[in-house]
Amino acid sequence: MELKICHLYPDVLNLYGDGGNIRCLTQRLKWRGIGAEVTKMPLGSKESLKGFDLTFIGGGQDFEQEVLLEDLHRGRDRELIAAVQDGMTVLAICGGYQMLGAYYETHDGKRCDFVGALDLYTVGAKTRMIGNYMYRVDEKLGGFTVVGFENHSGKTRLGSDVEPLGKVLAGFGNNGEDGLEGAHYKNVFGTYSHGPLLPKNPDFADLLIKTALEQKYGRAELAPLDDTLERAAHDEMCRRLEKHP
Ligand code: GLN
C-alpha cells in the first residue's frame, strides 16, 4: 500500500511550519509499513493533480494569497474542483482553507476570487483572531478534540453544502461568532489550525490517512501506534485552554 501525497503551493502557503504536517503523515504511514511519495507543486508547476491520494495546502498571508491567484486561475482551480468531487482527501489550513472557498474579501475591500470547491466565503475583519484554540470535531468524524493555533483576519461563513468540521471549545474558529470551526465536504478537511496540527492531534492525522486509504483501497484498518508523547502534548494544551479559554 502507498499514498501519493501532493504538497500544493509549498513556496507561498507554508506559515508556522505547516509543511511539518506532511512529515507527520509520512512518518505515521512508515511506522505502519505503508509507503508515501510526496510531490511538491509550487507556483508554475505543470504537473497534474490526477493520481494523487491526498493533497495538503498550508496557510499564507493576504499577500501570498493574492500572488497565487494567477496560477490558480490558469486551470489549477478547475482541477481542484474535479479532484474534490472525485473524492481526493485534502487537508487545507487557514489561507489554503479560504482558497478552496468561493472568495476572500480583505478588510480593506480587495476581493480574491478563489476556487469555489467548497461552499463557503471569507471576509476580512480589522481585528485579527490570534491564539491557541481548541475544537471538537463532529461525532461522525470521531468526536475527538483538536488543539491548535490560529491567526487570521478572515471570518469564514459556511454555505449549506458543507458541514462544519467541529465546534469551538476555546478561541475563535471560523469567525468568532457562530461557534463553528473549519469545514468538511466529501473528503476535504479545512481548518484554521496552523503549525504542528497533526503531530499534536494524532486522531486527526489518522482520520486523514484512513480516509485516503479507504478511498484508494476500499478499506483500511490502521494498526495502533504508541502515541504516548503526542497525547501528552495534546492533553497538556487541553488543560491550559480549559483554564484560560
Ligand atoms: N490571509 C488570511 C487571513 O488573515 C489567512 C492568514 C493565514 O493563513 N494565517 O485571514
**Could you tell me the number of beta strands?**
12
CATH class: Alpha Beta
Largest sheet descriptor: 6 strands, mixed
How would you write the strand order of the largest sheet? 2-1-3-4-12-11
CATH architecture call: 3-Layer(aba) Sandwich
| Average pLDDT metric | 96
CA-based shape? globular
- What share of the residues does DSSP label as strand, in percent? 25-35%
Task: Specify the number of helices.
Answer: 7
What structural class is derived from the secondary structure elements?
alpha/beta
Give the CATH H-level superfamily. Class I glutamine amidotransferase (GATase) domain
The end-to-end distance, rounded to whole angstroms, is: 42 Å
H-E string: EHEEHHEHEEEEEEEEHHH
Q: Spell out which ligands are present.
A: glutamine
* Low-confidence parts: none
What Rg do the Cα atoms give? 17 Å
- Residues in helix, %: 25-40%
Instruction: Look up the CATH topology.
Output: Rossmann fold
Number of domains: 1
Give structural attributes.
six-stranded mixed beta sheet, alpha/beta, globular, 12 strands, binds glutamine, 245 residues, 7 helices, Rossmann fold
Please tell me about this protein's structure.
- There is one protein chain.
- The strands form two sheets. Strands 2-1-3-4-12-11 form a six-stranded mixed beta sheet. Strands 5, 6, 7, 8, 9 and 10 form a six-stranded mixed beta sheet that branches.
- By secondary structure, the chain is an alpha/beta fold.
- The longest helix has 17 residues, at 69-85.
- Helix 1 (20-31) packs across helix 6.
- It has one domain: Rossmann fold.
- It is 31% helix and 31% strand.
- The chain starts with a strand and ends with a helix.
- It contains seven helices and twelve strands.
- Glutamine is lined by residues 15, 59-62, 65, 94-95, 98, 124, 151-154.
